[in-house]
Amino acid sequence: MNLSLAATREHLARRIRPHFHYGWLTLAVTFLVLLAGAGTRATPSVMMLPLEHEFGWSRATVSLAISVNIALYGLMGPFAAAAMQRFGVRRTVLTALSVLAAGIGLSTMMRTPWQMVLIWGLVVGSSTGVVALSLSATIVGRWFVKHRGLAMGILTASTATGQLVFLPMLAAVAEHAGWRSVVLIVALAAAVVIPLVAFLMPENPQQVGLRMIGESPDSPIGATPVTGNPIALAFNTLFVAARSRDFWLLFFSFFVCGASTNGYIGTHFIAMCADHGLSEVQGASMLAAMGILDLFGTTFSGWLSDRYNSRYLLCCYYGFRGLSLIYLPYAFGFDFYGLPIFAIFYGLDWIATVPPTVKLTSDVFGAKAAPVVFGWIVAGHQLGAAFAVLGAGMMRSSLGNYTLASTVSGGLCLVAAVMVLRIHRNPKVRAPAVPA
Q1: How far is CA 140 from CA 16, 24, 83, 279, 419, in A?
Q2: Domains in the chain and their CATH numbers?
Q3: Nearest-CA neighbor of 183 among 32, 27, 39, 383?
Q4: What pLDDT digit, counting tens, does each position of 331-367 carry?
Q5: What proportion of the chain, given as a percentage, has pLDDT over 90?
Q6: What confidence score (pLDDT) does residue 410 get?
Q7: pLDDT value of residue 228
Q8: What are the pLDDT digits (tens) for 258-274?
Q9: Are 174 and 182 in contact, with CB atoms under 8 Å apart?
């Protein structure tokens, strides 16, 4: 069976070679995988109000499950990257998608908060952590020498596209058919991409007789297999990378990135809109509009990171995001222009930080080690998101509004804008060598 699939992929690669490189097809399949993961991660924000109405769970209670989900989503990153190197991308992704679809389906039967924490926190969080940014970094590192920033921008934009595709539809379904119908739709979306991965995603260009996009024709074709325990590989990489100041600057700046995106706006924005008299569908539509803008903003950021200093790009991104968040509490006071102004500036900047961060990680630690190192940096991103989910939920429960949460989040972004200027300031001094 595997030999037949490999032969089919190699035949397909030969057929499409005169038109485009097979790496772009792999990128498209990966985009769809990340799209399903993005839809899954967006679902709890749609479920928050229906669960509150049906079971009487407070937003802090629901935020706890989402916080566990987001934390595990990040912490799985380095182990997922190491597992992809040891066991293969396709096998690792197929396992994660199968567990994800089954776990989401089981959540239709939950009745108590601990069940939501178990399913949406532990099971879904761990599975989506595999089909996340570490997968993007691994695919880009295996298939692209040229256009790496652009490819990473396209894959990162899948998160925004996931919101664009799923959020308004899921919000409408939740409003008319209940949250269980939402869960079944998301489970089906995760299941649909499984055969695409099985049939169309090779491990690397060598499996279909190709070189990486932009690789020199003189380079030998042949991949070096990785052996050893993936857990040990992930921790060994962390121990070596942690000796570098650049690692901690990347880690804590990405912590702020997660706190100000997935954690705060991605989770609480719809509920925040409801506090100001907007319907759940209106809030989801505004969030989806920001997703459309980020699709362009993040792709353009990838293009820019191929051409300009990534430190300066990150400084601009964090600075504009911080100002947008400080402005957000006042946006609801305007009749028409308030929220659209926020949506434009914040949406274009939502996760535009990812391509320059991946570029800096590769520059500092080397292309071979970058996926695992970036996995640990993504862990910082999601720990920041988990911190913001729980913190904003507690502030809302105690203060009755999100004003303080918005101000704190914006202030952290302004601090990060200054912090990133010190990353990789002296490229001639390399960080400690990291095991590939």
Answers
A1: 20, 10, 16, 39, 26
A2: 2-205+228-422 (1.20.1250.20)
A3: 39
A4: 887 666 778 888 888 888 877 888 899 889 988 888 7
A5: 17
A6: 93
A7: 59
A8: 899 878 887 788 888 88
A9: yes
Decide if 263 contacts 384 (C-beta within 8 A).
Answer: yes
Rounded to 5 degrees, what are φ and ψ at 144?
-125, 130
List the one residue out of 159, 144, 125 whose CA is nearest residue 33: 159
Contact status, residue 148 vs residue 120, Cβ threshold 8 Å: no
Tell me the two tokens of residue 360. 């800096």
| Residue 388 and residue 294 in contact, taking contact as beta carbons nearer than 8 Å | no
Residues 300-315: tens digit of each pLDDT: 888 888 888 999 999 9
Question: What's the gap between Cα 344 and its chain centre?
Answer: 20
Q: How far is CA 70 from CA 60, 126, 360, 379, in A?
A: 15, 9, 24, 9
Q: 377 Cβ partners below 8 Å, 6+ apart?
A: 247, 250, 251, 254, 357, 361
Q: Measured in whole angstroms, how far is the alpha carbon of residue 207 from the centre of its chain?
A: 27
Position of tokens 């921008």?
153
Look at residue 7 in the predicted model and tell me its pLDDT. 67
Give the per-residue SS3 of the chain.
CHHHHHHHHHHHHHHHCCCCCHHHHHHHHHHHHHHHHHHHHHHHHHHHHHHHHHHCCCHHHHHHHHHHHHHHHHHHHHHHHHHHHHHCHHHHHHHHHHHHHHHHHHHHHCCCHHHHHHHHHHHHHHHHHHCCHHHHHHHHHHHECCCHHHHHHHHHHHHHHHHHHHHHHHHHHHHHHCHHHHHHHHHHHHHHHHHHHHHHCCCCHHHHCCCCECCCCCCCCCCCCCCCCHHHHHHHHHHHHCCCHHHHHHHHHHHHHHHHHHHCHHHHHHHHHHHCCCCHHHHHHHHHHHHHHHHHHHHHHHHHHCCCCHHHHHHHHHHHHHHHHHHHHHHCCCCCCHHHHHHHHHHHCCCCCHHHHHHHHHHHHCCCCHHHHHHHHHHHHHHHHHHHHHHHHHHHHHHCCCHHHHHHHHHHHHHHHHHHHHCCCCCCCCCCCCCC
